[in-house]
Amino acid sequence: MDYTRAGVIITDPELDDHPIIFANRAFETMTGYMKEEIIGRNCRFLQGPDTEVEKVNEIRHSIREKKAVSVTIKNYRKNGEVFWNELHIDPVRDAENDKWYFIGIQKDVTEYEKAKEELKNSLDQVNRLSTPIVPIEEGVSVLPLIGDVTEERLENILSDLTSSISATKDHTLILDLSGLSDINEHVIHGIFNLSDLLRLLGTSLIITGISTRLAIKTVKMRIDLPQIRTFSTVKEAIQMR
């Protein structure tokens, strides 16, 4: 096991504090600890302030039940550096001696987790850029909806709007629908959720760019749009409001 690239440890649950009784070289390299600093210690020495409590509890529960468990958890190297540990723990029974051990296979997946987080941040940024809130005059902003609007994107819009309107104190928001590629129930319900939210913030909602297709869908869904002011274009809304 000293020649595998994965970190491997074996623990003995029958000894006091469930210590590590074997650690391979890859585990030493991964954690920065020497073997003499590892053997005899409980695995919790790798935990730190950002280690997820719920994942620690999941591991403890599986060990109590003698069940296999796989988690990706934040651990700490000897130098204090955080790393993401893809951890797989399996109970192993020594039938000859009627003893149980646990084998932990560990892999440093820090670069993968960082890349995943960067991708998420990039996608969040794309979502924000695809729904820009554009101030056009004091107290008035326009939010043009462009492309497809998913349920998740609507939730992000509502969240971003809350922060933006609270900061700008706009009294009017113009929601322009002319750039939407499709109108679905999520969009229609989202409009009314947005209207309710803005009302609580003291902001009026105006809708522009309503297509015939949207009007027909609202009728079929028995939704009453007249309670929200509507105009054909943003220009008309600015002139007539």
TrEMBL record:
Transmembrane segments: none
Annotated STAS domain residues: 130-241
Domain of life: Bacteria
Keywords: Chromophore, Dioxygenase, Flavoprotein, FMN, Oxidoreductase
Keyword Oxidoreductase: yes
Limits of the PAC domain: 67-121
Domain PAS intervals: 1-66
PROSITE patterns tied to this protein: PAC (PS50113), PAS (PS50112), STAS (PS50801)
Keyword DNA-binding found: no
One Pfam short name: PAS_9
GO MF, any single term: dioxygenase activity
Coiled coil spans: none
InterPro entries per record: PAC (IPR001610), PAS (IPR000014), PAS-assoc_C (IPR000700), PAS-like_dom_sf (IPR035965), STAS_dom (IPR002645), STAS_dom_sf (IPR036513)
Designated name of the protein: Biphenyl 2,3-dioxygenase
High-level lineage: Bacteria, Bacillati, Bacillota, Bacilli, Bacillales
